[in-house]
Design a protein that fits this description.
It is built from 3 helices and no strands. 83% of the residues lie in helices and 0% in strands. With 84 residues, it is mainly α. It has a single domain, classed as Monooxygenase.
Length: 84
């Protein structure tokens, strides 16, 4: 594994990890009152597209980070829609 990939994986880990506390809080409380539906819909779509980009370009850091983030983003988006 080269240095650039390692830097990308560390960056992916950091950004995905920073998203985790908010996702866990939302999943536990089901409180989505402070989240904009349109913003989160667009964020989830963007995350999916980054995942697709990473997979199609064989970019492991982009694929890994966006795979994990997409799961949590989709859960939060589902909660936002279900628990309006």
């Amino acid at each position: 594994m080269n240095t650039i990939t390692i830097i990308g994986l560390v960056a992916a880990f950091c950004t995905t990890l920073s998203f985790l506390p908010q996702a866990i809080k939302t999943i536990r409380t089901k409180d989505t009152s402070g989240i904009s539906l349109s913003m989160y819909g667009l964020f989830t779509l963007g995350t999916f597209l980054w995942l697709l980009f990473g997979a199609l370009s064989s970019n492991l850091p982009v694929t890994a980070a966006n795979f994990v983030t997409l799961i949590f983003a989709a859960i939060i988006l589902f909660y936002k829609i279900k628990y309006k």
